[in-house]
Design goal:
With 418 residues, the chain is α+β, with helices and mostly antiparallel strands. It has two domains: 200 residues, Sandwich (Immunoglobulin-like), CATH 2.60.40.650; 196 residues, Sulfite Oxidase, Chain A, domain 2. 15% of the residues lie in helices and 28% in strands. The chain contains six helices and 23 strands. The chain is elongated and about 75 Å long. The relative contact order is 0.17.
């Protein structure tokens, strides 16, 4: 898997090395059989969890961006002129008059009422929230990273504009070099902007990542963060929000054939595995799981001899002898540049008493997993992994169709030599 964050790959290489060496030192393997491997998996992966950086530092996030040039690379004078610095940034919230949308207090540059940074921070003093979210593109095979995002719920700003009637959808876009062809836009329903489904987080106008001001490369001064959505909803350099009575989306991704109503899928991917090993040697594998809307109950793997034809009536291998891997627990130190690696008090989804997640794995986050496979005979093998969500549905179901998030079962090849 081509994982965007090389620092997490490096951590995983170290995890796998420790996992294997400690297993051998513990005498867990005898001949072709594993003695006590299940408990060993739990013990060793628990130790490894506290050595992993679960949060991705701003500089290490994978980047999918548009703009020629990318807006954050403009000279300082141009950044200030175009509102790409915190002290010059302004946000407009205006009605789509042509559709009959009505608001009582438009926040517009023309009227001199656009929301500036000082007013925005005043709202943040009492309304700001934080939560974990992985950023992932629905047409890429791997997450770009996971961060602790902080911002003001979008609804708090929408109410400042005093929406009245004939509004069904919220359109938004960011700075695009004053070139309509470079505009990247997205949208959500008014209902989703104003109200969160049970257990979900609010859509936010984010200004911090891992406790630090949002960099231009990451979409600062302010970007949209839609918790359950793929990256195309999380528009960078946000500057304008339009309340419209149009019933449909205007997302740029819709113009490119994508399902713009898709939410994040639950997916397991490999990070480390031995492309080649020796018979009589245990096989150590590890990876990440992207936790989508329906959560994650387990990660599984399946090793079989290469060259076997898949069953024609079972394209997703639901009848295969899958084995459970071990999902690593939540760490006590999260990394990402946070002070002491600790999650700040008051973060959504975390217990105020323990400072740990109320449940794990958390939706819209990344979890790590690992497994030790017993030694096997010489030959060529195919190794697969899959995630199973909290409804008991295994990847790639329930949504195997492309253009709405990539979730095909991943397969790698391992050669075992005599």
């Amino acid at each position: 898997m081509n994982y965007a964050d090389d620092s997490i790959r490096t951590e995983h290489l170290e995890l796998t090395r420790r996992f294997f060496l400690q297993a051998m030192a513990a005498g867990a393997f005898g001949g072709a059989a594993i003695r006590g491997a299940a408990q060993l998996n739990v013990d060793l992966s628990t130790q490894a969890a506290d050595r992993l950086e679960y949060l991705t530092k701003q500089a290490n996030f994978g980047t999918v961006e548009r703009g020629n040039p990318p807006p954050y690379t403009l000279p300082e004078a141009k950044l200030r002129e175009t509102g790409m610095t915190r002290d010059t940034w302004k946000l407009e919230v205006v009605p789509d008059i042509a559709t009959g949308a009505k608001v009582g207090n438009p926040l517009s540059a023309e009227r001199g009422t656009a929301l500036d940074w000082t007013a925005f921070m005043k709202i943040a003093e009492t309304k700001s929230v934080r939560f974990l979210k992985a950023i992932t593109c629905n047409n890429l095979n791997s997450p770009l990273g996971m961060g602790l995002w902080e911002g003001v719920p979008l609804r708090e700003v929408l109410w400042l504009a005093k929406p009245v009637s004939d509004i069904r959808r919220v359109y938004y876009y960011g700075h695009h070099n004053e070139d309509p062809k470079q505009m990247f836009r997205s949208s959500v329903s008014l209902s989703r902007a104003l109200e969160d489904p049970p257990g979900d987080y609010p859509i936010i106008l984010a200004y911090k990542l891992n406790g630090e001001p949002l960099s231009g490369r990451r979409g600062g001064p302010v970007r949209m963060i839609v918790p359950e959505a793929y990256g195309f909803k999380n528009v960078k350099w946000i500057q304008r929000v339009v309340l419209t009575n149009l019933p449909g989306a205007n997302d740029t991704y819709a113009d490119e054939g994508n399902d713009i109503d898709s939410w994040m899928k639950t997916v397991a991917r490999f990070l480390t595995y031995p492309a080649e090993t020796k018979s009589g040697t245990a096989i150590s594998v590890s990876g990440v799981a992207q936790v989508g809307l329906c959560g994650l109950s387990k990660v599984q793997y399946w090793l079989q001899k290469a060259g076997q034809e898949p069953p024609p009536d079972d394209p997703y291998f639901t009848k295969a002898p899958w084995q459970d891997a071990h999902v690593l627990p939540a760490p006590s130190k999260w990394g990402g540049g946070l002070p002491s690696g600790r999650i700040p008090p008051g973060t959504l989804g975390f217990s105020p008493a323990t400072g740990q997640p109320k449940s794990w794995p958390m939706r819209y986050a990344i979890a790590h997993w690992a497994a030790m496979l017993p030694p096997t005979a010489a030959g060529n093998y195919e190794l697969r992994c899959r995630a199973v969500d909290n409804n008991g549905v295994a990847q790639p179901m329930p949504r195997p169709i492309g253009r709405s998030g990539m979730n095909a079962i991943e397969q790698v090849t391992i050669t075992v030599k005599a």
